């Protein structure tokens, strides 16, 4: 077994016996790993107590390096617990959406460093009241890119034309890009995107701030991007907004 020191975000915890936990950790060196924390609830535990979800730790693991085999937590030191997530319901719910997205995909060691950085930045951005949907949309877009998938949001994938921004546009889920009329006719993979949501998506694609964006625009962007992330992992989301293809985002 290799002894690994790594930064870890706790995504899930499960009580195991009276003194131990089973954890899912997103680490910057190993990706997502399942870990058993033996005796973590004992008063003299080397971890200082049980671990909690959406807290950032520096951990030492005995890595089994085998799929389906639990690694062993040797030590853990709390680095940040993002206190605003425990104080405001909107921030807490947004963190749950972020956690659900991370649990919906498999993160390997290669992709782990940028994804962990994205997650920590998003959790810190949730400190600002009212910025929850923007933080989640930014995280979801970055997560898609880290997974090697970048939706085409600046122009039609068929004609190359840029949207006017004044009317709803069509987005092809299968081809991951905008499709202008008449090329969107008769397709079953189309999601309609309204001007506000498109503006938010364009801000993400172009790397511009757009601080005056309406809340509904960021929420629409997050709804689409979160659904695209979950589609990569083949899982359904519960905390994130549902994608209703019969309505304009």
Summarize the structure.
The protein is α+β, with helices and mostly antiparallel strands and 249 residues long.
Mind explaining what this structure looks like?
The chain is α+β, with helices and mostly antiparallel strands and 249 residues long. Among the domains are: 2-80, Nucleic acid-binding proteins (OB fold (Dihydrolipoamide Acetyltransferase, E2P), Beta Barrel), CATH 2.40.50; 150-233, no CATH class. It is built from 6 helices and 9 strands; from the N terminus they run βββββααααββββαα. It has helices at 84-87, 89-103, 112-125, 132-146, 195-206, 215-233; strands at residues 2-16, 20-27, 31-37, 56-63, 71-80, 152-156, 169-172, 177-179, 190-193. Strands 1-2-3-5-4 form a 5-stranded mixed barrel. Strands 6-8-7-9 form a 4-stranded mixed sheet, with helices on one face. Helix 5 (195-206) packs across helix 6. The longest helix is centred in the last third of the chain and has 19 residues, at 215-233. The protein is elongated and about 65 Å long. The mean pLDDT is 88.
